[in-house]
Amino acid sequence: MTKQNIDWANLGFGYIKTRSRFVANYKNGAWDKGGLTEDSNITISECAGVLQYAQTCFEGLKAYTTEDGHIVTFRPDLNAERIHDSAVKLRIPVLPEGMFVDAVKQVVEANEDFVPPYGSGATLYIRPYMFGSSPVIGVKPAEEYQFRMFVTPVGPYFKGGVRPLNIRLSDLDRAAPKGTGNIKAGLNYAMSLYNIVEAHDLGFDENLYLDAATKTKIEETGGANIIFITKDGTVVTPKSDTILPSITRRSLLYVAEKYLGLKTEEREIHKDELSDFAECGLCGTAAVISPVGIINDHGKEIVFPDSNKEMGPITKKLYDTLTGIQMGRIEAPEGWIMRIK
Ligand code: PLP
Ligand code: COI
Asked: Which of 149, 59, 79, 61 is nearest to 111 (CA)?
């Protein structure tokens, strides 16, 4: 199929309407089998659960064109697992076994011409989501739901491409202890909007959240997990029950140990330790690995000596290995790559 006429190299992280999306409906206690539609609009009740009480969760994953011209996705089974966990916590009925991954295949295949070419720097972002579609006015779960999945070609998440970010320690909290920080609920992002606009207005790229209970431990940013590299090359990342279990972060820890022979630590990170690290980066599907140059702690700049001019050397090795696996240049661990075409 001839590729769409899109300026792939200059894409930002935005929405471009593509041809087909997947939709399945839950009604009378069961999911239908769902299918593709070309209609990108949704008509629901003015009183739908999603509109009144934000009963919705989502996922994010990507499709890549490999060096040898195949189209693949990266660990979609883990996104299926995570949307299952999100749905359970939001009292959204879980999807039948296999529906999520099957929908990924169908949607990507149907929009093959929107998958950016190998080497273009762009990828196809896949956005699955579920929401309460029937009316609720008392606070309770909806009775009817929709599961949808669309795709859109994207470039880098942060404006200006891969460049060291300047992020600030946030005073506002993202997630309460025993709250919803570890699921991908829309509400976690709605409540971050005030703060991200303020951060951008002040010239920062992102907010770095501390644990809400003690305000001393590093958690994650609004849209990505965080990793640090010590001066002796150990990869350190926060362990917390209130952050999103990032598939990218879990994959990077594996890559660090098994491909690069690096030591890794998943542990609590105190904010006073920040100045000990040599490199810092944000990781996620959208962020891939974006270097962090500075964390601003209320006017005091913590500068990472090895990642404030360009991506740090260890971070770069992690980035090259991960993207090498995703683009088929490096052999992937068993089960990580799902070939679509
Ligand atoms: N943390 C938050 C809050 C996110 O929104 C994301 C994006 O999905 C991540 C972390 C990274 O997760 P993943 O690597 O699974 O995309
Ligand atoms: C992703 O990385 O897939 C996300 O959902 C993060 C979002 C902030 C775009």
From this structure: 149
Q: What's the CATH code, domain 165-325? A: 3.20.10.10
Task: Give the integer Cα–Cα distance in Å for 131 and 49.
Answer: 7
Is the domain covering 8-154 a CATH 3.30.470.10 domain? yes
Q: How far apart are CA 229 and CA 292, in angstroms?
A: 11
What is the number of the ligand 2 atom nearest to the C-alpha of 127? Answer: 3
- Ligand 1 centroid from CA 28, angstroms: 33
pLDDT digits 0-9 by tens, 56-85? 999 999 999 999 999 999 999 999 999 999
For the residues of 118-144, what is the DSSP string, one character each? TTSS-EEEEEEEEEE-SB--SSS--S-
Atom of ligand 2 nearest to the CA of 184: 5
Q: At residue 161, does pLDDT exceed 90?
A: no
Q: Of 158, 159, 200, 145, which is closest to residue 284 (Cα–Cα)?
A: 158
What percentage of the chain has pLDDT greater than the value 70? 100
